[in-house]
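Researcher: Next sequence.
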Amino acid sequence: MPAMLRRMYSVPEHITMAGLGAGLIGAIYPTIMARTGGRSLPCPLRTLTGLPCPFCGLTTATVALTRSEWAAAASTSPLIYLTAALVTATTPILAARLLGLAPPPRPWSAAARARTRYSAYVVVALSWLFQLHRYHFI
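Model: Next structure:
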């Protein structure tokens, strides 16, 4: 693979695209479930081990956020607010890039990647602690 290969979108923009998709699904998910009589999908980790994963409740929190049920979203998974902030902050950049108004992203330095990875580990760990507390494991 060539060393100069550049990605068209940055990692935050990929998260933004996923977040926008999740928001769209969160807006129509209750209607789909009501019309089909379907049930929400269980968390695989919680089903197998009984322990919640760090991302447990994100579907419920996304649906609550799309309905402007702020407290319900926060009590289910505060991680939704971090995701929503990232989506809100990077959507204009993503749109500009899609329209050709912004240049491709510049590669991050090794130090910036390491700081971001460490920060992501901390956020996931805090989210997991929240979920373990929410489900009365701690």
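Model: The radius of gyration is 18 Å. The mean pLDDT is 87.
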